[in-house]
Design brief:
- The complex is a heterodimer.
- By secondary structure, chain A is mainly alpha-helical.
- Chain A has 13 helices and no strands.
- The chains are: A mainly alpha, B mainly alpha.
């Protein structure tokens, strides 16, 4: 029970941060012709910001099913990495149904907070962690859908930065503490910019709603940092061996 | 009508399968140190790649073509400083939205 409460407390800031973002989603969905109920159901069943925005754009354009599946797949592929990472943070004997429930709410922010946990992530903790963000995400969508038209396009646009600034607030403090984390942040940001601006490379960000560019930059960034650490480890082992002899 | 509901179901199914397959079926703790490090860096590298450079385009008014704007640059700098001073998620998010709105309002007065 304590773990559940602790999870709720940790998750509540995410809930607040989700409201402006999902509000924007609700606004846009209604503008595209979805009903508030449909917009809310999409939020409840997807819990995915970028994927949802891209999805409704495709549906509005009457895209074929296969295009919708591929785009959703590519934009959300990062959740695969997050889910893999979380599989290493839960008890190996945790039953499938609990894992299946947790999987539903592996969002960028919920995952970020869960992975900052120093110890194993328990089911009650994750349950508490995901509870208020789900409520925030769905109720924000509904509010935005119903309140559509009350806000100027300028204000609506500015609300779009909330999501990214939450990401900044999540990654900067650990990056200030650890140089290795800072390196991972800088390399991935640099690669992501390359995929957007360098001619030839930027073809990658034009397909799949930018999903490929993000996933490639993230995998390369993490792989480079892990490899640097590996080299250091080997060098250390070699020095230790020499001093032993 | 049914096109819409089939699409909504496909979005849900695709998103959920991506999330459930790794955590649902990977039960072994990874022994390989390189993979452990790789997984350790993933949250930072994914969030960083998502944020930069897209954050600079994120204050584009609804309906307009996405573009880099001064309001986004200023709000991002404010967010970076606040995050560096270890302020919470919500504060950072709310302050940057307000800063972006303030800059958008001030810009036409200055130029």
């Amino acid at each position: 029970m304590n773990e559940f409460i602790r999870g709720i407390k940790r998750g509540f800031p995410i809930c607040l941060g989700y409201i402006p973002v999902s509000f924007t989603f609700g606004l846009i969905a209604v503008k595209m012709g979805f009903t508030p109920a449909q917009a809310t159901i999409i939020s409840l069943t997807n819990m995915a910001s970028a994927g949802q925005f891209a999805g409704i754009r495709l549906i509005e354009g009457g895209a074929p099913y296969i295009e919708l599946i591929i785009t959703t797949f590519v934009i959300n592929l990062r959740y695969f990495l997050m889910s893999l990472s979380l599989s290493q943070k839960v008890a190996p004997d945790m039953p499938f149904y609990k894992r299946a429930v947790m999987a539903y709410c592996i969002t960028d922010e919920v995952f970020a907070l869960a992975s900052m946990e120093p110890d194993e992530v328990s089911f009650p903790f994750f349950g508490g962690l995901m509870l208020t963000p789900i409520l925030g995400w769905t109720s924000g969508t509904l509010l935005g859908a119903v309140a559509s038209g009350l806000l100027s396009p300028m204000v609506q646009g500015c609300m779009g930065i909330a999501l990214y600034c939450m990401f900044i607030a999540i990654i900067i403090p650990p990056a200030c503490k650890s140089r290795k984390v800072a390196l991972a942040v800088v390399i991935s940001a640099f690669l992501s910019c390359m995929f957007k601006y360098v001619p030839g490379l930027n073809e990658l960000s034009k397909v799949g709603g930018g999903g490929w560019a993000i996933i490639t930059a993230a995998i390369l960034g993490a792989a480079i940092c892990a490899s640097i650490k590996e080299v250091k480890r080997r060098r250390k082992a070699a020095t230790a061996e020499r001093s032993d002899a | 009508m049914s096109y819409l509901y089939i699409c909504m179901f496909l979005m849900f199914l695709t998103t959920y399968l991506i999330r459930v397959i790794p955590i649902g079926f990977v039960r072994k703790k990874m022994e390989n140190l390189w993979i452990q490090d790789f997984i350790y860096y993933i949250p930072f590298s994914v969030l960083s790649a998502m944020t930069f450079p897209d954050v600079l385009y994120s204050t584009t008014a609804t309906g307009a073509e996405p573009h880099i704007s001064v309001s986004a640059i200023v709000a991002t700098l404010v967010a970076l400083v606040l995050a560096w001073r270890k302020r919470g998620l919500v504060l950072v998010a709310i302050v940057s939205v307000l800063v972006a709105i303030a800059v958008e309002l001030l810009m036409p007065l200055l130029f």
